[in-house]
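Batch job 17 of 40 flagged for manual review because the log was empty.
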Amino acid sequence: MTARLAALQISPSRIGALVMRYLYLMRSSWPRLAELVYWPAVQMLTWGFLQTYIRGQAGASGLGDALAVAGGTLIGSLLLWDTLFRCQLGFSVSFMEEMWSRNIANLFISPLRPVEFVAALMTMSLIRMTIGLVPVTLLALWFFGFNLWGLGFALVGFFANIVLTSWAIGLAVSGLVLRNGLGAEGLAWSVLFFVLPFACVYYPVAVLPPWLQILAWCLPPTYVFEGLRAAIVDHALRLDLMFEALAINAGLIALGAAAFLLLADSARKAGTLLQMGE
């Protein structure tokens, strides 16, 4: 294993040092930590109480049980969507920390390799996502009786594909910010909301017009949310959906990595690494 890492010139110590830098930044500022839990909790409670109200109103008409299942898919979809958003944001914000501190040029002239930089960003995205996700899933269980972890093995496929998609988007967005400067940082917060209507987070693909369904099936999150609905409503594990999403994610990760490396090389040649203003 060590020989392989040496051949690739990858240093786990450099990756670990960069991860420690980001952890020290989080530890030194409690608002950074609070923000990781605050927004997911607010969204989950808002949508959760809304579906509780709707279910209560529909109870008299005999639709209570059906809406209870629909409410479960709503909360589950919300938690997985926020996992995707927070994981991508964890990747991009860690990258943005270097931009805001005007430290990116120092990293690129250090022995740190781009692959090590990306590995550290991926690690931080997982850490930030975990800090935000675990308390919110416990709140969902406490307030609404929805146990996301009760999905078992299916949850592994959901999380794996969600994380891979977030990394692919994070790579592309970070490359664009690196090349175009902080004027493009808004993409880190907004790009996923373009995907939201077509990923069928809160409704099945069949709701979309036929021509939009083609676009929806090109997005890995669509397979995840369809798989979630199958697991909750039909109690079925759709491995076919998970493997199809995995195949698309493999292509997206390759494209994201290529885009990041090309944009980083372009920024180096254009001299924009030393001009990180708006």
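Reviewer: the log was empty due to a logging misconfiguration, but the result itself is present. The chain has eleven helices and no strands. Unflagging and moving on to job 18.
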